[in-house]
């Protein structure tokens, strides 16, 4: 994942070559300084999404706030309603671990002028965070029904141009390696954009376990402390018998049309 060592050895080779030429002119000295700088900086780390998706959103309309939302949480904030969904405060909730907090983190996002826009902006302005240097993590341990399908959304917003990097673990598995507070490693800051991690699957047991922090080995970044602002958990209903029959009939119809065309 890193190419820093290769860059370092190339820089040292250039340094030796330039030194052998006894630094005949100023341009040789400048080149040596540039090579040494490259060696010390290295190469930025790449975000790897093993399952789920990481994307930026620009307001409530980009999020899934319909359906059977069984949990909606506002980390480090008060109860707030967005698009009919009540994001409950995590204060005193034993299902969540958020060791540190900041009220009004950096720039408040600007999604638009509606009441829902304003309420989501307020949610995304405050953060819970964990001190990776003290081996802290952000955690959620949410009761669910084993075998049922759920859709998870984790909402994150760096709120300024920063190099903050951490990992996401779902059910003990590596979901995302080197997520940034702006999204993927290629994403940039804009006051009107924030980040959502989305994952949908059946619950393997009766507790959904989520952990964020420095988990999967060495990570490159100016700030290694994870943050989050909100989450939603939606129960995906099982298809009814009638729906399954309709899907089966539709499949048979498509199959018979293909047979007739042959």
Structure characteristics:
262 residues, 2 domains, 6-stranded antiparallel sheet, 16 strands, globular, alpha+beta, single chain
Globular, elongated, flat, extended or rod-shaped: what is the shape? globular
Flag low-confidence runs: 1-43
Instruction: Work out the count of structural domains.
Output: 2
Strand order of the largest sheet: 2-13-10-16-3-5-4
- How much of the residues is beta strand, in percent? 25-35%
User: Mean pLDDT, nearest integer?
Assistant: 83
Give a short account of the largest sheet: 7 strands, mixed
Number of helices: 4
- Compute the number of strand runs: 16
Structural classification: alpha+beta
Task: Describe this entry's structure for a reader.
This protein has 262 residues and is an alpha+beta fold. It has 2 domains: 4-41; 48-236. 25% of the residues lie in helices and 32% in strands. The protein contains 4 helices and 16 strands. The protein has helices at residues 4-20, 26-41, 115-125, 241-261; strands spanning 48-49, 53-57, 68-74, 80-82, 85-89, 96-97, 100-102, 127-129, 138-143, 149-156, 165-170, 173-180, 194-202, 207-213, 227-228, 230-236. Strand 4 (80-82) and strand 5 form a beta hairpin. The chain is globular, with a radius of gyration of 24 Å. It starts with a helix and ends with a helix.
